[in-house]
Design goal:
With 122 residues, the protein is mostly beta strands. 10% of the residues lie in helices and 43% in strands.
Length: 122
């Protein structure tokens, strides 16, 4: 009965999910003005996520802002307690790369692209 009542309140007032938290993640580094690197770069983000065992973060790089083309995964699943990742750029060709982070909890996910790029030069 309590679940039905909560669902009714949720539908009537248009509140967010009454059983969990909304997921959100924002790339903070690289910054909007971009950076230039040779060997490595620390990617940083902020997030809001529930504290469940099936919640994690994946990091990708991309030469454009289209996740359907050229997206390269650079991390294994990271803990939601982490706030940064050291990207080894030494094996990447010289180019400008946007960073895309994905926060997931079960089948729910949130994504964000960096505003600026990481320019890899060797």
């Amino acid at each position: 009965m309590k679940t039905v009542l909560m669902l009714a309140v949720f539908l009537l007032v248009g509140c967010s999910n009454p059983w969990g938290h909304d997921l959100s993640i924002t790339v903070t580094h690289p910054p909007a003005e971009g950076v230039q690197v040779d060997r490595s770069y620390i990617i940083k983000w902020t997030l809001s996520a529930p504290d469940y065992s099936n919640t994690g973060i994946l990091i990708f790089v991309d030469t454009d802002l289209n996740p359907e083309t050229g997206l390269i995964q650079i991390s294994d699943t990271l803990s939601v307690e982490s706030s940064g990742y050291l990207w080894d750029c030494t094996l990447f060709p010289e180019d400008d790369y946007y960073v895309r982070v994905m926060l997931f909890e079960g089948s729910n996910s949130a994504h964000d692209y960096s505003e600026g790029t990481v320019r890899v030069i060797h």
